[in-house]
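Re: the request from the purification team.
They wanted to know what the chain is likely to look like in 3D before they choose a buffer screen. I agreed to run a prediction and write the result into the notebook, where they can find it.
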Amino acid sequence: MRNRVCRFFGKRRNLAGNIGGGVRDSLRVIKNLFRGKLLFALAVVAIGGAAAWLRFDDLSAKPLHADEAEQAYTLGLLLNGDGYRYNPVEHHGPALYYFAATLCRLAGQNSYEALTVGAVRCTPAVFGVVLALLPLLCLRRRRVAGNGGVGMPAVLLSLAFAAISPVAVYYARYFIQETMFVACFWGAVVLLWRALTTVAKRLAVRNALAAAAGVLLGLAVASKETWVLMAAAAVAGGAALILMEAVVAAKERGFAAQIAKIIADAKGADGGENRRIFVRRFLIPTIVFVFTAMFVAAAFFSSFGENPQGVVDSLKTYYNYANKASGGAHGKPFGWYFALLWDPEPFARDALVFFGAGGRFLRSLGLVSVSGTRELFTGIGCLVALVFLFTGAMSKGERRAVVFALVSGGVLLMLYSFITYKTPWLMLGVLPPLWLAAGTGFAVFCRWSWQCLFSAVSADKAVPKRIIGGGVLLALSVAVVTTGVIAHASAARFLSTRFAADMRNPLAYVHTTEDAQGMARLVMQLTEFAVDTDALLIRVISDEYWPLPWYMKKWDVLRGRVGFWRRVPPPSKEAGGELLDAPVVITDENTEKQVAPRLRAKYVTDFVGLRPGVLLNVRIREDLHQRLLAARIQQN
């Protein structure tokens, strides 16, 4: 029997060798399949589609945040033809308003009254998809002259983590500057790196890339003042990269020999040629980059020449925002951002829901968090990349990308953490380099485990223990990546839809409640039951009332009037004399004591939370409220 088996498989090959050869051939086929450009392109399209769906689906479902409503009002003034003047104290830069105005006009919404929530949020959603696709610019190009970059698997994983990031998805559905600002800034960094490292012979190629990077940086500068912090972090990452390259070169040649070579290159016969190369490859593109960025930023701040004072005000704003760094109402402790992004407790509790028998019991006790994983697996991927950075498993381009990403992202995180003023959307600027590092780390982990399995199978003498160990490593790497993708995708969808305005959602920072949105809609319905709509008046006397002006913006069209006061108006003809009676009166806790004695009519009163910490007292005149109830009863 033994001789028959040997003759069947060959004299020089045993059964284990044949099995190993078959597995080896199968692994090669799979490896070549994943190297294919067609599969890569299909994966990019799928990830891009998922990113767009997460950001655009049902954009108008969530109530408008107060900041969104105020910025939508500024956008409405621009659409109405009232122009735009940069305010160095509030609302950040003008770039978002001009891009949003363009998209709204294309959608046929040419006035503030015509604006819809979905149209307003469309601009950040577009830039959210752009931000999710930024890792494509880091792809290593083999046949095109270039320097550095990472491979297809690392890019795909980075794209996946960027596309399904809970933080990125949530704030891409907010009409604030953050998503556009972050996409433009890190896009400028990557394009500038491409411009300075490409070895294309034509100077125009490098200058075109530098000009494109300058345009993006100009848009970032015209979006938000915190670009200086991100620029400092990017410079720190570049310095760390240069230092690493110098240390590697000194190790290979010796420190003294490296210094001697640098001096010889500068003074030698080819020193002039080296200087020309420096001017053409580095100095000229840098000048193009800087001047393009300055021109674009100045154009936006000056409202394209209509307000030259805006350029001067854009410099004054840094003093104003430096004073806000002390925190005030937004003051948080040093470790607040770390808990926001990487607190493992929500993931552990949510895992019990899916895998534990006591999930329903924990949910009934309110012990299950709605916050999901947030960026837990992005942090795990960064740790994996840091571990493999000190091994020989990374290529030169991967090592460069990881060093820059970890240093720049880490420095920016520390800068934001030291500043007392903290809001959760600031973390969006930290995440893009960390997505690249995490994607590269997981890709290297998968490749290393694959190589362990492949080398064990390819050995002349197949050792079952090594094959099993390699298989376990590969299964572990794939399981971790798959779990991370599923967890982040579900958290992104969960936090951005069902719990988008829930106070338990840590990303819903002082967000407008759904009750307040419903109250505003109810007040708007009162015009149908008013006897004399010319006399229908809403008095809102509260220090905090946004986004109510947005929800009541069509009141004037219905021949009603709305008055907003942050303080109780003194007795005057404009304020209605001594009395403040009106069909609808809305006050807060601070103004209630002063307004109540100046009311004579009978009201039906209700309390509505505008957002966490802000409670409104809503009074509807009794006769108007009875008509509303009668109409509802008749409809039912």
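For the purification team: The radius of gyration is 30 Å.
Please add any questions underneath this entry.
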